[in-house]
Structures are given as C-alpha cells and as structure tokens.
C-alpha cells in the first residue's frame, strides 16, 4: 500500500526548542529538536520561524541486515507559491507528555512520539516516562 505524502501550510513550533546543525548542502539550513535529535527541521532560509511554510513531514529510514526501520522525522519546509496553494492549512503541536505510552484525544492527521533522550537510563525503571510528541492538525 502506498502512503500519500501529507503536507500542510503552517508555521513551525517556537525557535527556542531547536538548535542549528551544520548542513553540507548549500541553501539548506537544519535544526534539531533540543529534546530529541530524531526530529529535525530543514529549510531554505536561515530564519524560518514565525512565517508560513508548506511543511512536509518525512520519515527517514535506515536499514540493517534484515529490515528497514524509521530513523528520523524531518520537517521539510518549502516556500509558499502558486504550485502548492492547494495544501491544507494546518498546525503543528509540539508537546512533552508523561506516562507509559502516548496518545492523542484530538484526532490529528499525523502523530509521532519519541522517548526523551535524557530518560534513556530510567526507561522501564520509572512510572513516569517522558515523551516528545508532534501532532499535525488540519484547520
């Protein structure tokens, strides 16, 4: 079954949650989430905050000898122009959730959760695991 790419016209979460990383591609700027390096933003400008973009969430995959698996989530930002005006308007919610598992009560279009990296040693030993959640909603 082929999964259709879902893109949204929206703004990015607040800049304070991200740190820049070096890009080897000209005109491509990259930030990783401070809570998990499994989430990154890729944009064509050095300051993509507080403006509308066409955002395409993309799962990057890795493989080992036996299987392919999700490795990172990239939020790819594209300039809003006439070719992509038909994308739905949406919003991205970034949230830290506590508990043994994650869930959404609001029926997002896309939902991703990542264990917070600072809790790797305590996972399984603590009742309260922390998760970083990204939910994408259509407006």
Describe this structure in words.
- The model has no long low-confidence stretch (mean pLDDT 89).
- This protein has one domain (8-137).
- The chain is built from no helices and 9 strands.
- The protein has strands at residues 8-10, 18-21, 29-33, 36-43, 53-63, 68-78, 90-98, 110-115, 130-138.
- The protein is globular and about 45 Å long.
- Strands 1-5-6-4-3-2 form a 6-stranded mixed sheet, with no helix packed on it.
- The protein has 139 residues and is mainly β.
What's this entry about, in short?
This protein has strands at 8-10, 18-21, 29-33, 36-43, 53-63, 68-78, 90-98, 110-115, 130-138.
Provide tags for this entry.
single chain, 139 residues, mainly beta, six-stranded mixed β-sheet, three-stranded antiparallel β-sheet, 9 strands
- For the secondary structure, the number of strands is 9
Helix content: under 10%
User: What order do the helices and strands follow?
Assistant: EEEEEEEEE
Please tell me the total number of domains. Answer: 1
The amount of beta strand, in percent, is over 45%
Question: Helices and strands: which structural class?
Answer: mainly beta
Q: Give the overall pLDDT as a whole number.
A: 89
| Uncertain stretches | none
Continuous helix count: 0
Report, as a whole number of angstroms, the end-to-end distance: 27 Å
User: Quaternary arrangement of the chains shown?
Assistant: single chain
Give the strand line-up of the largest sheet. 1-5-6-4-3-2
For the sheet with most strands, the description reads: 6 strands, mixed
Specify Rg, calculated over alpha carbons. 16 Å
The coarse overall form would be globular
């Amino acid at each position: 079954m082929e999964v259709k790419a879902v893109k949204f016209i929206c703004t990015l979460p607040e800049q304070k949650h991200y740190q820049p990383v070096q890009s080897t591609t000209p005109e491509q700027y990259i930030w990783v989430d401070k809570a998990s390096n499994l989430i990154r933003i890729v944009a064509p400008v050095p300051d993509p905050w507080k403006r509308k973009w066409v955002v395409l969430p993309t799962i990057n995959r890795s493989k080992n000898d036996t299987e392919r698996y999700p490795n990172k989530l990239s939020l790819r930002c594209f300039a809003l122009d006439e070719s992509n005006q038909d994308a739905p308007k949406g919003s991205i919610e970034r949230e830290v959730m506590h508990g043994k598992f994650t869930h959404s009560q609001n029926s997002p279009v896309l939902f991703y959760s990542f264990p917070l990296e600072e809790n790797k040693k305590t996972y399984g030993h603590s009742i309260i695991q922390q998760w970083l959640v990204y939910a994408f909603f259509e407006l």
